[in-house]
UniProtKB/TrEMBL annotation:
Stretches the record annotates as Disordered: 18-42
Protein name, UniProt field: F-box domain-containing protein
Basic and acidic residues bias locations: 22-32
Compositional bias annotation for Basic residues: 33-42
């Protein structure tokens, strides 16, 4: 009974909305066979919600949640939702066999018998009608709905409204990093959201690094301090964070006289791979031009504290036969220094 009380107000409100639309269609036969045209709103879209976020929320769905949903719909709501499915509003054919009130009930029973991995998709597709959202929003909407009821009955009511408030990847990231403290690392926080495997933790860290980069940038930040603050532990993600920092700063705020050691110390570039890529970036940015103009490579390496083999080879290539800006030819002949890792991010297009 407590479960019904948890979501009854939500369903009542949604049911009233559904009936209003249903009644408004009653006087016009054409409205009964066409998808209702609704005015576009500024509501954030969840179409690009990362799979990691969605899966971590879906992990809270259990058979008991499905059963409670089945018992809460009244006949009018079932009729409305079945009509919507008939109109083709379902973005997937996972539930194309749900075409009537009778089949609606059977659908829930059928989903309940599926194993967790198989029942998640049809359940969230069907449940998307609950929140009356755009097609791209529905899968996340139902996951949030089920997660809310699951968490409430798991005695975590404070987490339910937080999950319900998630609108995109950014809000999900901020929800997690807002709970990171010196005593509680990101991995401990993520465990409360079903993110526990090493691969998913790496994915979460990368999501945080890229999300915060897109919001305010990493320019001027200290890599070591930011990694500690946000709980970034994976070496590849620390390297990515460091890349964002030095590429943003080197473009505008770091003069040509600064050595790689000075930059690394100032901006907390501590990982071996990050330092190697910093040196290679500086060579491509301007030091290579000095080598083209006849400066001695050994002296340049000493002057700018270039220590990595990859960066030194890059410098020598410019001195011997390189043409600054011919990136494809250089990349074919140089050992892999990971120089294009950040090139996939929309804010970076390689060396400029």
């Amino acid at each position: 009974m407590r479960r019904v009380k948890t979501v009854s107000s939500t369903l009542t409100r949604l049911g009233n909305t559904a009936l209003k639309r249903k009644n408004s269609d009653a006087g016009d036969d054409s409205a009964k066979i066409k998808r209702p045209q609704t005015k576009k709103t500024a509501r954030p879209t969840l179409w690009d919600m990362p799979e990691l976020v969605l899966q971590s929320i879906i992990s809270y769905i259990e058979p008991a949640d499905i059963l409670s949903i089945a018992t809460m719909f009244n006949p009018e709501q079932k009729a409305y939702f079945s009509k919507e499915i008939n109109y083709g509003r379902l973005v997937s054919d996972s539930l194309s066999w749900v075409v009537s009130i009778r089949d609606f009930d059977q659908a829930l029973e059928r989903i309940q018998t599926l194993p967790p991995r198989q029942r998640a998709l049809p359940l969230i597709r069907l449940g998307g009608h609950v929140y009356q959202l755009e097609p791209g929003d529905r899968s996340v909407a139902m996951a949030l709905f089920c997660a809310e009821t699951r968490l409430h009955h798991a005695h975590s009511p404070s987490l339910a409204p937080q999950l319900r408030a998630i609108e995109n990847a950014s809000t999900f990231c901020h929800l997690l990093i807002g709970q990171v403290t010196p005593e509680r690392c990101l991995r401990e926080v993520a465990a409360g959201y079903g993110v526990t495997s090493p691969s998913r933790l790496r994915e979460l860290e990368r999501l945080i690094v890229n999300t915060l980069m897109g919001e305010e940038g990493w320019a001027g930040k200290n890599g070591r301090q930011m990694a500690a603050k946000y709980g970034i532990c994976d070496e590849s993600n620390i390297t990515l964070l460091e890349q964002y920092i030095f590429t943003e700063m080197c473009r505008d705020d770091i003069g040509e006289t600064a050595t790689c050691e000075e930059i690394a110390r100032r901006y907390g570039i501590c990982s071996p791979k990050g330092r190697e890529q910093l040196e290679a970036y500086r060579v491509r940015q301007f030091i290579g031009r000095k080598a083209q103009q006849g400066a001695d490579c050994k002296e340049l390496a000493k002057r700018y504290e270039i220590t990595s083999t990859a960066a030194r080879q890059c410098l020598e290539y410019y001195a011997v036969e390189g043409v600054l800006g011919e990136r494809s030819a250089i990349r074919r002949q140089l050992p892999d220094a990971g120089l294009e890792v950040w090139g996939n991010h929309p804010s970076h297009n390689g060396f400029n």
